[in-house]
Every structure is written in structure tokens, then in C-alpha cells.
Amino acid sequence: xxxxxxxxxxxxxxxxxxxxxxxxxxxxxxxxxxxxxxxxxxxxxxxxxxxxxxxxxxxxxxxxxxxxxxxxxxxxxxxxxxxxxxxxxxxxxxxxxxxxxxxxxxxxxxxxxxxxxxxxxxxxxxxxxxxxxxxxxxxxxxxxxxxx
Length: 148
Fold this sequence. Notes:
By secondary structure, the protein is of the alpha/beta class. It is built from five helices and three strands. A three-stranded parallel beta sheet has the order 1-2-3, covered by helices on one side. The longest helix is centred in the last third of the chain and has 19 residues, at 129-147. It is globular and about 45 Å long.
């Protein structure tokens, strides 16, 4: 979305970010051991290795690898879902703070005590997963309705 926002092309009508991994370095000091213990899905040390592998030749400083570093001034229609027990939560807040400083509106939807990608837990009926899923469906339908 960041790259497209700086190109002379039509931007997406809506960008929906679900528990996004915005900083592959995982260097945010707010990603604490306590937060790690609350998120059974993600393991910080494993993700750090995956981040280095994912970065490859591009390197960790390239915003295409590490979106938190990218240009955001032209981003529009972004909705971000994050849970408070997701280890990626602190970086989502860092992203939101940066967006606010640059006068970029992010529709930030945070679910208390929800882990990484909790919206996929619909069958288990955990973490307000059904409500979140229906909210996402509603957003997609609104985009579709506006296209017609």
C-alpha cells in the first residue's frame, strides 16, 4: 500500500490490515517477555530469524521489507485490526502514532485480550472473533457497494 500510494496509479478503495507485521526487526522495547507469554501464536525469536530471511538482499532498512519505515503521507482508507495480546501490537501503535503526526487517518480497531490473527478463531468462538469477522465483511461490502 505504501508503494502504491506514492505511484501515479489508482489506490485501493480500502486496505485492511489484519495483525500486520510492520517491523520485521521486532526491536520495539514494548514487545516484552510478558506480552510474548500472552501470544501463543507468535514467537519473537523465531520471527526475528524469519525477518532476516525475508529481508534477503533488500535488507531490513528497505520499507518494502519493513513497512514501518515507508512513506505513509499518501495512504488512504486503511483499517488496521490488532489484538492487545498480539506481540505485533506495539508496532501497530508506533505506526498509528506516526500516522497521527503526519495527519494520516488510520482506522485503528483494537480488540482487548486478542492474540495474533484472532479473527480466524471463529469456530472456537474466542477473542470476539465472530464480531471481528463480521466487521471485516461489512467493510468489504461497503467497498463493493460503492463500486456499483
